[in-house]
Each structure stands twice: as structure tokens, then as C-alpha cells.
Design brief:
Length: 335
């Protein structure tokens, strides 16, 4: 089968790979659509030691079951997947917080991912999708669930309901834009976005109605926002988030571009700011996101761009060079 393989930093190649073997309790999926994630780009840049050259990346996908060794799933079912493979028996899995599973592994990281014509995965990670949801839109479930999980965590801490909250999103990638769209559906009326790419600023204005600005040219208002989402996670964006948040406000830290940096602990403490971290999503979040996508909570997703899997190397280069307005490029292995 054809697969897009990460061969070395800044290089992806379309190669032949063996068809996956069906293992007990697993299914084989004919991949219909697979999105390129920021973490895939992180690996492409050679910055993720967990993802080594020779790996088939990709963990945002939809497809059709073609072989099954699990009675719950039938051949021909349309599905998406939770790319986290969890143990089901640790304390976090027992609590329903399976995203924190102590024994988790992940497709596109510890085993071959979705940038291929076929992929194997445990049936416990597979989520059926309704016929009314397109396979391309279903491939957006994973990043959309990341946004949903983060916003739902934030709502537990925010002092006021979302319609009353002034929000700043730092970063107009897929998670940032999906967060903006979901906030709109939750009734949040004032959403600003800081994004350096002018094409993505235009997209955020057009599709999510955001007030946008270039943070390299304009600084967000100090102490001006009740809620700040850092969808980048770099030292400058952390500092910008902390400067922009109001006393008593909430910062949701989603991105992880840099793994460590200093922040203004004095403001965090004296202004009683809540700084929250978030990691992916639970299985419940994934099911909720499929329903939200079907109901149109994330809009029409007209900004999602599709390309053939054979165009994968160019797609990665276009994202690297910021030559695309789309926050989400989806590869189609079965064109």
C-alpha cells in the first residue's frame, strides 16, 4: 500500500509499506481522509524525539472498516478514531479521564499512523459516525475535540458565562480556529485572535467573525481579557497571554511549541489568575464532538482544504512556508 513516510527532518516521501496485519481486538480501516496536525509539523521539523524518521505520521482521520476482529464493529462501517490507545484499567481510565491514561500509546507516534491507504487500530478507539457527516469533516473530529475539551474545562473556572466573557485566542491554527467557532456556538460574542499569518487572519475573520491582529505589530490590551487561549504554547505567547488576561481571569494553555519557559509568577499570584493545562480529550469528548460536527456547531468547515495523499510532501512544505490560508490540510489516500 502507499504511505506518506517521515524520512528525515523537512522530508516526507510517498513509499510502499506492507498492508497491516489484523490483530485480535483490532480493526483495519481504509483511510478516507487524514488531517495534518501541528504535532505532525513538529515532527517534520525534527523537534519531536517521540516521532523518529521512518514513521508513518497522522492521527486525525476518518475511513471505513474493511476487516474486523471485534464484534462491536462491522465491515463497511464509517468511522473516526480516538488516536490515543489507552489501557482501560488505570485510575484515570476508571475515572473516565482516559486522556491521562498512565499507559497510553498513540497512532502516528508509537505505531503507524493515518497517512496511508490502510491502518490498523484497536476497536476500543474507534467511533462510528453518522451517514450525514462527510468523511472529510469527520477527519476534523480530533482537533475539534481538543478545542471542545479545553473550553469545557475552562467553563468550570470562569467567573461568568461565556456570552459575557471577552476572549483572546493566540494562534489561528486548526485548534485556535475551531475553538473560536465553538465559542461562537456557545454564545461567546467577543472573540479576538492574534495570528501572524495574514492568510489565517483573513480566514478567522471570514469564518469565525473574529477581530484579528498581528501580534508582531500590535500588542493585545493589557489586563483586557477575561479568558485567554494560548493555542501556540511558546515563550512569547505565554508571556502575551499572562499580560493580556484580567485579574481573576483564566488562561487555557493548549499549545506546546516550547516545552519550558519562565512566566510572570508575580502577576499570576497577585492577580489571582487561573492557569490551566489541557491534554487532548476523553472518549466522551470525541463522541460529543462527532455530534457537534453533525449539528453544525463548528460551522460549514469550508476553510478545510483537501489534497491527494500523493501531494503530501508538498502539503507539508506549504505549511512549513506558510503558503496556505487553511488552518487544516486533509490528505485523501483513496482518491
Amino acid at each position: 500500500m502507499k504511505a506518506l513516510v517521515y524520512t528525515q527532518p523537512l522530508e516526507m516521501q510517498l513509499l510502499e509499506r506492507p498492508y497491516p496485519e489484523l490483530q485480535p481486538g483490532e480493526v483495519i480501516i481504509k483511510v478516507a481522509a487524514a488531517g495534518i496536525c501541528g504535532s505532525d509539523m513538529h515532527a517534520f521539523h525534527g523537534h519531536d524525539p517521540r516521532r523518529q524518521p521512518g514513521l508513518v505520521l497522522g492521527h486525525e482521520l476518518s475511513g471505513v472498516v474493511v476487516e474486523t476482529a471485534a464484534p462491536r464493529l462491522q465491515v463497511g462501517q464509517r468511522v473516526t478514531v480516538n488516536p490515543l490507545i489507552t489501557c482501560g484499567h488505570c485510575e484515570f481510565c476508571r475515572q473516565g479521564r482516559d486522556n491521562l491514561c498512565a499507559n497510553r500509546t498513540m497512532i502516528g507516534m508509537t505505531r503507524p499512523g493515518a497517512f496511508a491507504e490502510y491502518m490498523a487500530i484497536p476497536a476500543a478507539s474507534v467511533i462510528p459516525i453518522p451517514e450525514s457527516l462527510s468523511l472529510v469533516h469527520a477527519a476534523v473530529t480530533e482537533p475539534a475535540a481538543t478545542a471542545l475539551h479545553a473550553i469545557n474545562l475552562s467553563m468550570r473556572v470562569l467567573a461568568r458565562p461565556l456570552p459575557e466573557v471577552r476572549t483572546l485566542i493566540i494562534g489561528g491554527g486548526a485548534v485556535g480556529l475551531l475553538a473560536a467557532l465553538l465559542l461562537r456556538s456557545y454564545g461567546c460574542r467577543r472573540v479576538s485572535m492574534a495570528e501572524v499569518n495574514p492568510l489565517r487572519r483573513d480566514s478567522a475573520r471570514q469564518h469565525a467573525g473574529c477581530e484579528t491582529f498581528n501580534p508582531l505589530e500590535t500588542t493585545a490590551e493589557d489586563n483586557g481579557f477575561d479568558y485567554v487561549i494560548d493555542a501556540v504554547g511558546a515563550k512569547p505567547t505565554r508571556n502575551a497571554a499572562l499580560a493580556a488576561v484580567k485579574p481573576g481571569g483564566v488562561i487555557m494553555h493548549i499549545g506546546l511549541q516550547d516545552w519550558a519557559s519562565e512566566i510572570d509568577m508575580r502577576k499570576l499570584t497577585l492577580a489571582e489568575v487561573s492557569l490551566l493545562g489541557t491534554y487532548t480529550y476523553s472518549m466522551a469528548d470525541m463522541y460529543a464532538t462527532v455530534q457537534a460536527l453533525e449539528e453544525g456547531a463548528f460551522g460549514d468547515l469550508a476553510w478545510v482544504e483537501t489534497r491527494d495523499l500523493s501531494e503530501g510532501p508538498q502539503a507539508f512544505n506549504d505549511l512549513h512556508e506558510q503558503r496556505t490560508a487553511s488552518s487544516k490540510l486533509v490528505l485523501l489516500p483513496q482518491v
